[in-house]
Amino acid sequence: MPYNELAYFHLATVVPAFLLGSYLLVSKSKGTPKHRFIGKIYMLLMLLTAVITLFMPTKFGPSLAGHFGFIHLFSALVLYNVPAAYLAIKKGDIKRHRGLMIGLYIGGILIAGGFAFTPDRMLYNWLFA
Questions:
Q1: Among residues 100, 101, 55, 102, which one has the least CA distance to residue 75?
Q2: How far apart are CA 60 and CA 75, in angstroms?
Q3: Region label for 69, one of left (φ > 0), alpha (ψ between -120 and 50) or beta (otherwise)
Q4: For site-directed labelling of 51, which of 17, 26, 79, 81 has its Cα 20 to 30 A away?
Q5: For position 59, what pLDDT does the model report?
Q6: CA 81, 27, 115, 57 torsion: positive or negative?
Q7: How large is the average pLDDT for residues 118-128?
């Protein structure tokens, strides 16, 4: 699949994940059925976006095997944190779940997303060039 199509799929999963994740962080409805339902959608969207990025080759900086770059470390973070957070909450470990989910949001959305707005990146060019 061409890079641009992957980028569109990536945006189609990460934008709603950003919105849902933001809501979940500020919402006071922790632990309610609504929180759990939205949280499952958020986790699924984050997993999908991480898998999609694995098929997107790096275009900046050094690469491993001509494909993976430093940005792909955020994909690994997501692929670890989502199942770990899910298992933590299933075991009743709210503190670990909270920490993993905050780390997921900060690393997987805010930091990784911040890189998308640096000059010469596709999203930067779409919005600012």
A1: 55
A2: 16
A3: beta
A4: 26
A5: 78
A6: positive
A7: 84
Rg (CA), the chain: 15
Place of tokens 């275009």: 59
Cα distance between residue 11 and residue 52, in whole Å: 10
Q: 58 pLDDT band (50/70/90 cuts)?
A: confident
Average pLDDT, integer, range 24-48? 96
pLDDT reported for residue 90: 97
How high is the pLDDT of residue 118?
A: 87
What span, in angstroms and rounded, lies between the C-alpha atoms of 84 and 97? 8
Separation between Cα atoms, residue 26 and residue 101, nearest integer Å: 13
Spatial contact of 50 and 78, defined as CB atoms under 8 Å apart: yes
Give the integer Cα–Cα distance in Å for 125 and 117.
8
SS3 at position 61: coil
Joined together, the tokens standing for residue 11 give 């945006």
Q: What are 52's two structure tokens? A: 């999609």
